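RECORD TYPE: inverse folding
INPUT: structure tokens
STRUCTURE:
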């Protein structure tokens, strides 16, 4: 397959390199990724500044294109300018840290996969549930198994968009794979108020916790040691509410 590989942690991130190494034997992998970390930029695109592209080497060999934009920018510019439309899969990751629950909306990793689907390609986002110096070995191995499975079974359907989260556990401690919905339970979050050396107050967002209890959600299944696979769609309209408000009579 011809795979467009991107992420939101930046082109030099360990997770992206691990995924590249796991896939480059069996597939043609094209890397187009942000030149620096752009985590939690969601589906932002760059309109007010030019996009600049640099060719990047890894170990003295051409590795890919670094873009001074967002993950969604990377997918667009890859397909329209750098690689071309002949792509079989838009793959994003491996992200450092899980992308489950409400955080899916903030995730640049997931938005890159969604952008692929918007442009007519299958999208796959992979995240590892560990932030402090994770080892991506198993996650990259699992991603390659999943890519091969999808290639054989589903990738002819360009509508498919999957958000995959992998627990950071030894392979024999992982309980299995769960196909689950995205949790929409609110997060408990807070801001830490600090004072800088010049006496100015500033704030740092921190202490985020999930409130979800339903075992059939990405948040809880991942916490319990399952690999979670959640199909996503980018149509944000609410059909149930639409049918209710369709009869509204608003005078103007
Ligand atoms: Mn990230």
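DESIGNED SEQUENCE:
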């Amino acid at each position: 397959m011809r795979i467009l590989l991107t992420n939101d942690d930046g082109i030099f991130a360990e997770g992206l390199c691990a995924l590249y190494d796991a896939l480059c034997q069996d597939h043609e992998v094209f890397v187009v990724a942000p030149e620096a970390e752009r985590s939690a930029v969601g589906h932002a695109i760059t309109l007010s500044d030019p996009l600049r592209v640099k060719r990047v080497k890894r170990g003295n060999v051409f590795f890919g294109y670094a873009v001074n934009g967002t993950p969604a920018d990377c997918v667009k510019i890859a397909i329209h300018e750098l690689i071309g439309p002949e792509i079989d899969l838009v793959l994003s990751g491996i992200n450092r840290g899980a992308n489950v629950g409400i955080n899916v909306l903030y995730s640049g990793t997931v938005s890159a996969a969604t952008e692929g689907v918007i442009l007519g390609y299958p999208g796959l986002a992979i995240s590892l549930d560990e932030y402090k110096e994770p080892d991506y070995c198993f996650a990259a191995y699992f991603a390659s198994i999943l890519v091969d499975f999808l290639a054989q079974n589903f990738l002819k359907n360009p509508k498919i968009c999957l958000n995959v989260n992998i627990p950071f556990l030894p392979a024999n401690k992982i309980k299995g794979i769960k196909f689950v919905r995205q949790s929409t339970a609110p997060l408990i979050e807070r801001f830490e108020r600090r004072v800088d050396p010049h006496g100015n107050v500033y704030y740092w967002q921190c202490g985020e916790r999930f409130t979800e209890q339903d075992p059939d959600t990405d948040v809880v299944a991942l916490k319990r040691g399952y690999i979670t696979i959640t199909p996503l769609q980018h149509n944000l309209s609410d059909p149930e509410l639409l049918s209710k408000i369709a009869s509204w009579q608003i005078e103007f």
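NOTES: The domain at 2-184+212-234 is CATH 3.40.1210.10 (Stationary-phase Survival Protein Sure Homolog; Chain: A,).
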